[in-house]
């Protein structure tokens, strides 16, 4: 798989997966974001679709921020993201997160609790706040918003665990929205990540995408690496 800009491209599924966009977060919290939340999400998603030309773009939960519904502006933001996918030839697939209780106010298509994005290897995309029903070889989730602090600098990271959940691998994506500072994995222990698919965070390997070098840097499992931080 390929890591880029808080997303993952799964070549065996021909799919880009993003999680935790939290559309409407800036509006709900009155956060001033210099790049503009809507434009930033739209342009970065467009860059991913352009780079990988995927058949599908899978939103792995928490597309919306507010629990009680989408404002007109948030609904427009979702429509813009869907348009980016379709204009790039990628089918948008929506997976429900714990924030997405009112997703149907902004999206009239199917919303899945989990999505089998590939059969070989069997790969399931779900949000990660609840245990999935489908057995798989690989689960791709969000929800955790992982970040890592190295030399007092916090940056988003992926977490990859081999055989950590029902014998399957788990990939945890960072939050795609840059309004989320992330939860530092440095201070997490055991099941503290808050997802049933992350039963022991020490077994997960942090992966940081270096934008300048355009490469992913993979570190030892957190249980071994923590003492070096």
TrEMBL record:
Record-linked InterPro entries: Calcineurin-like_PHP (IPR004843), Metallo-depent_PP-like (IPR029052), Pesterase_MJ0037-like (IPR024173)
Pfam families: Metallophos (PF00149)
GO function terms (MF aspect): hydrolase activity
Superkingdom per UniProt: Archaea
Gene3D superfamilies per record: 3.60.21.10
Domain Calcineurin-like phosphoesterase: 16-129
Matches recorded under PANTHER family: BLR1149 PROTEIN
Protein name, entry field: Phosphoesterase, icc
Source organism per UniProt: Halogeometricum pallidum JCM 14848
